[in-house]
């Protein structure tokens, strides 16, 4: 034993140190960033880690969801580490227990009750994990191929600038101190600063509204030109006089949909127990989980922030919840989706996503060789590799 220890001469240590430096230097991320000017020019920052700077990424995905394989392939190309808790197949009894004693008073449709319970299951799993923060996704979302290399690092810098901590350790807390925020909407279907039924953007909103709201603007070269943004998003950005290729992180005013929301432990507990408990209170007049969260952000107690335009948006066409509700009521598309549909069809991209997974170009159907190629060229270098882009 002692002989073995003596064998480690200073030269051995020097070689070991050299080896470590070489490994660090030639890490794929590092070299991709250094070599490829298409994103290193605009973003000095290093890519976000595999959980985007949160403790974990969780997905709400029902049993047998047809979206699952595509989501996992998109995550593999972007190199995201997802946790997909096994969901319960909610029974009629679970649904009855959620509803008020007099079921006639219920405002929440069956599909929405099940989605609500599924979010709860994931929140509980997050709390059990001991992680400090988590980002919760729905399983039909889409994102840009430059999410991890450019978009998230830029959004993190914006979030840090809103953090009150003076000695913020940005390595440990890339999104600012978790005591400074409760919920971060990175995926949503719009925060139009008011009820969409009353009107959106130009003619309804004014720069004063933004000025009176805690916010920060930041440039993002991956952003679509305004003509290609969802019409509601384009209109609210114009109404606020926000320049092209600029996003805003602002205190949430009227955030819609829970496609991708980050939470702290405290926020998860409050959502489960007071903001969106698993038992319907008809006097609150809330018809879905996302509406309950909206209330918690708009009216308190949650301190919520929204990234506009959003970095995650749900894909057109495959929503399980909408399909289930279609049998109860003939509503196929909420207003935001209806307004964006024509553009989705001609762009062949998800609303507000410049180069995403919706058209199927970046799925690999289990082909590992194709995956390696897509990871390098699309995921790490951020090249779109689609005709015309
Ligand atoms: C990413 O960074 C966050 C914040 O420091 C950390 O909690 C998380 O564990 C990291 N994820 C991975 C996969 O290293």
Oligomer status:
single chain
The unreliable regions are: 1-6, 21-43
**What is the beta-strand fraction?**
5-15%
Radius of gyration, in angstroms, nearest whole number: 22 Å
Ligands in the model, by name, code or SMILES, are:
2-acetamido-2-deoxy-beta-D-glucopyranose
> With helices defined by DSSP (H or I, 4 residues minimum), what is the helix count?
15
Q: In this structure, how is the largest beta sheet organized?
A: 8 strands, mixed
CA(first)-CA(last) distance: 62 Å
Structural class by helix and strand composition: alpha/beta
Share of helix, binned:
25-40%
Query: Taking all residues together, what is the mean pLDDT?
Result: 88
Topology as a string of helices (H) and strands (E)? HHHHEHEHHEEHEHEHEEHHEEHHH
Number of strands: 10
Topology:
Elements: H1 2-6, H2 10-25, H3 28-35, H4 37-40, E1 56-60, H5 68-78, E2 82-83, H6 92-98, H7 110-129, E3 133-138, E4 141-143, H8 147-162, E5 183-187, H9 207-211, E6 215-219, H10 231-239, E7 246-251, E8 260-264, H11 265-275, H12 289-298, E9 304-308, E10 312-314, H13 320-326, H14 335-347, H15 368-380
Helix pairs in contact: 5-15, 7-11, 7-13
Bound molecules: 2-acetamido-2-deoxy-beta-D-glucopyranose.
The site of 2-acetamido-2-deoxy-beta-D-glucopyranose has 8 residues, from loops.
Description:
This is Glycosyltransferase family 25 protein. The chain crosses the membrane at residues 12-30. Keywords: Membrane, Transmembrane, Transmembrane helix. The chain has 389 residues and is an alpha/beta fold. It has one domain (57-380). 40% of the residues lie in helices and 12% in strands. The chain is built from 15 helices and ten strands. It has helices at 2-6, 10-25, 28-35, 37-40, 68-78, 92-98, 110-129, 147-162, 207-211, 231-239, 265-275, 289-298, 320-326, 335-347, 368-380; strands spanning 56-60, 82-83, 133-138, 141-143, 183-187, 215-219, 246-251, 260-264, 304-308, 312-314. Strands 2-1-3-8-5-9-7-6 form an eight-stranded mixed β-sheet, with helices on both faces. It has a two-stranded antiparallel ribbon with strand order 4-10. Helix 5 (68-78) links the parallel strand 1 (56-60) and strand 2. It is globular, with a radius of gyration of 22 Å.
């Amino acid at each position: 034993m002692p002989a073995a220890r003596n064998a480690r001469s200073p030269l051995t240590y020097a070689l070991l140190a050299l080896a470590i430096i070489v490994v660090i230097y030639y890490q794929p991320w590092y070299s991709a960033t250094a070599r490829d000017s298409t994103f290193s020019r605009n973003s000095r920052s290093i890519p976000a880690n595999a959980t985007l700077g949160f403790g974990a990424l969780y997905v709400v995905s029902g049993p047998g969801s047809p979206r699952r394989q595509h989501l996992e392939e998109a995550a593999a190309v972007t190199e995201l580490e997802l946790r997909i808790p096994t969901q319960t197949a909610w029974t009629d009894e679970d649904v009855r227990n959620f509803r008020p004693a007099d079921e006639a008073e219920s405002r929440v449709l069956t599909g929405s009750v099940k989605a609500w319970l599924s979010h709860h299951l994931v929140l509980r799993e997050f709390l059990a994990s001991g992680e400090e923060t988590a980002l919760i996704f729905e399983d039909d979302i889409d994102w840009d191929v430059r999410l991890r290399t450019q978009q998230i690092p830029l959004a993190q810098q914006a979030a840090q600038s809103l953090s009150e901590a003076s000695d913020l350790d940005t390595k440990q807390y890339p999104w600012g101190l978790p005591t400074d925020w409760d919920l971060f909407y990175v995926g949503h279907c719009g925060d139009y600063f008011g009820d969409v039924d009353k009107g959106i953007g130009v003619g309804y909103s004014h720069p004063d509204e933004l000025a009176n709201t805690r916010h920060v603007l930041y440039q993002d070269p991956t952003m679509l030109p305004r003509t290609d943004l969802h019409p509601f998003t384009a209109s609210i950005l114009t109404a606020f006089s926000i320049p092209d290729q600029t996003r805003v992180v602002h205190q949430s005013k009227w955030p819609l949909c829970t496609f991708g929301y980050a939470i702290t432990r405290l926020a998860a507990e409050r959502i489960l127990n007071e903001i969106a408990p698993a038992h319907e209170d008809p006097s609150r007049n809330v018809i879905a989980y996302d509406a309950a969260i909206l209330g918690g952000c708009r009216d308190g107690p949650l301190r919520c922030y929204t990234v506009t335009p959003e970095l995650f948006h749900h894909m057109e066409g495959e929503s399980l919840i909408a399909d289930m509700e279609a049998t109860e009521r003939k509503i196929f598309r909420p207003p935001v989706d209806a307004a964006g549909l024509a553009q989705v069809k001609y762009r062949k991209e998800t609303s507000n996503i410049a180069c995403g997974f919706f058209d199927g170009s970046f799925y690999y159907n289990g082909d590992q060789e194709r995956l390696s190629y897509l990871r390098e060229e699309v995921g790490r270098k951020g090249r779109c590799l689609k005709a015309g882009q």
